[in-house]
Amino acid sequence: MVELLFKRTLLPRRRAAPDAVFAVRARASGPFQILRNGTVIYQDRDAGTVANLLMDQVTSRLAVRARDGLLLHAAAVARWGEAIVLPGGTEHGKSTLAAWLCAGEFDCLTDELVFVPEGTRTLEAFARAVRCRPDAEAILRGRFARWPPHAASLNGGASTLVPIDALRTSRRKVPRLVRRFLFARYDPAGDGVLKPLSPARSALRLLSCVLNAGHLEARGVKEAVRLARTVRAAEITYRHCAQVEAALQHWLGPEAR
Amino acid sequence: MPRAGYRLEMLEREILLYHPDEPKVIYCNETAALVWRLCDGTRTVREIGDLLGRAFAQPADRLSDEVAGVIRALYSSRALTR
């Protein structure tokens, strides 16, 4: 379960004492248990439910503690060495969109958290399992040759957890430079037209996705402004993921493979 | 006049106004950014409208309504104070 969730999660370069230690206990006849710092905080017989909860616990812990950079609620994908960050709130369709794009020529970096260290344009993606909810599965079934796209996927907790490796096809080194911000939002009436954002509007949108503002100077405004000045940004409302894919391909332009 | 502690980030011709202790960030387009800069506590709405009118070669009375609207919005956002 832990491998499914966090196999590709990068360890920090600077090792520090852990803020919390999570463990999963599986007993032959009993329920799965999640332990935090040695104390059982949750148990359930359904592995998928436990996996979902463990992922949420770890993610929210990271969000609360992250410092020295912007932690964005965002998915991120890569193509031909370019990282495209898709910031957005819950229910904006980030995971579905990331999975859709990554059935094509994009590679999934994360469906949930992106960290941009202070003063850089580099990206540290929280590469956890990708969570696909039932409505997303209905969309993605037709996109993948088989569903779920990996035998190790775990169903439960009202969603399917897909190993992130199933959404990575490229053998290229994972890109670390942020090239674009795309603020994409699912809307049944979306026109699918990509609209460039001014730096000020981009900074404002970024700030609405910062999860650790309380730990940052000026609540992250300085960093968001700095990034908005240097990274091109656009917005799109879409009713089908294919609209975003087409718009992205046009926006990124032809490039040597 | 601008409320004490408010800071400004200029991005091309637009600005973001924010107070480092508050979560809210205020976006100002080019006109609103100029209004903010001209609100020094001494100029009237009419005077600000005149200045913008000359800058944009537009009738001041047409701009005065827009200036008043911007000032009302900035005041209700607590970026301006009396």
Structure report:
The complex is a heterodimer of chains A (257) and B (82). With 257 residues, chain A is an alpha+beta fold. Chain A has helices at residues 2-6, 47-65, 94-102, 134-140, 199-207, 221-230, 241-252; strands spanning 22-25, 32-36, 39-44, 69-79, 82-87, 107-110, 113-117, 124-125, 130-132, 154-156, 159-162, 178-186, 195-196, 232-238. Chain A is built from seven helices and 14 strands. In chain A, strands 4, 5, 6, 7, 8, 12, 13 and 14 form an eight-stranded mixed β-sheet that branches. The two termini of chain A are 35 Å apart. Chain B has 82 residues and is of the alpha+beta class. Chain B has three helices and three strands. Chain B has helices spanning 30-38, 45-56, 60-76, and strands spanning 7-11, 14-18, 25-28. Chain B has a three-stranded antiparallel β-sheet. In chain B, strand 1 and strand 2 form a beta hairpin. The longest helix of chain B has 17 residues, at 60-76. Chain B is globular and about 40 Å long. Chain B starts with 6 loop residues before the first strand and ends in a 6-residue tail after the last helix. The model of chain B has no long low-confidence stretch (mean pLDDT 89). Classes of the chains: A alpha+beta (257), B alpha+beta (82). The A-B interface holds A 198-201, 203-204, 207, 213, 217-219, 221-222, 225, 228-229 and B 7, 9, 11-12, 14-16, 18, 20, 22-23, 25, 27-28.
